[in-house]
Amino acid sequence: VAPPANVSQAQYVGRFAPSPTGPLHFGSLVAALASYVDARHYRGQWLVRIEDLDPPREQVGASKAILGCLEAHHLFWDDEVLLQSQRLDAYADKLEELRLRGLVYPCYCTRKDLVDFNGPYPGICRHRPFRDKPHALRLLTSDLPSTENALPIRASFSDELLGHYHCPQTLGDFILKRKDGLFAYQFAVVVDDIFQGVTHVIRGMDLIDSTPSQIFLFERLSARSPYFGHIPVALNDQQQKLSKQHGALPLISNRSADNLRAALHFLNHPPPPEFTKATQKEILQWAIEHWDRKKIPRENAIPDYR
Ligand code: GLU
User: Fold this and answer.
1) N or C terminus: fewer CB in 10 A for the chain?
2) DSSP letter string over 83-130?
3) For ligand 1, atom 7: residue with the closest CA
4) 223 lines ligand 1 (CB under 6 A)
5) CB 261 within 8 A of CB 270
6) pLDDT digits over 219-278, tens only?
């Protein structure tokens, strides 16, 4: 298969990066499968990273269950699984690097201070003197006027699947480290995509409005930003993203061939009828051969599990 113009075969590294807040459900399978099949179609590597940065939100046993479930679906990854919980020193080093360049500032705002704002952080703490009290650390951007040293976040980017995308609102001076001492998702995800040499991020549309801010951070860290492609998200009957909070059911591993067929159907790549009794391996092989980015739907949808 010839890779798209921007891909040379040796240089595709994709990844799936679940947070271990619960077992995989149909929506997460769609994301895992799309990133896997896209990577394998272009003869790329596919990595798995467990985003276990937030112990209070973690569910005991979820990481193991997720990996077991990927294996049951024959979604086998390359290299070792990277755990974000093992990467705290790397995040601290990168944060220090940004701080020494004057790109990080402490933020003392409470949730209450910010209730009246929706949208990017209004920059209240940009010029406050340092105080010895709990604070978050924010990245300096120049979405707001009057900052030297800062660069603006570009709100538009070219999505591999959707084409030109303009984000209605960027994240502005986003948090790198939270007041409770935990590193923020937006920061760790970029540091790790750089570390793992990720070149292609295929993930759910729910994350698309973070992408311009993440691209900004890649550039600030002098790294080449990956290509991003966003796939539709599976919704429940109330049009909410399938998620554990909204009661999505865990996948049943011994129905993995059926699950794969349903997920491919959702991605508008339904295997032909003779695949009704096929194994996971056969279904995946068919998908890798027949994968066509142009066929992927562009709208979130309620799946029709068949
Ligand atoms: N860990 C994030 C999530 O589960 C996904 C990160 C990403 O794909 O960039 O929503």
Assistant:
1) C
2) EGGG-HHHHHHHHHHHHHTT-EEEE---TGGGTT--SS---TTTTPPP
3) 17
4) no
5) yes
6) 999 999 999 999 999 998 888 988 877 778 888 888 999 999 999 999 999 999 999 999
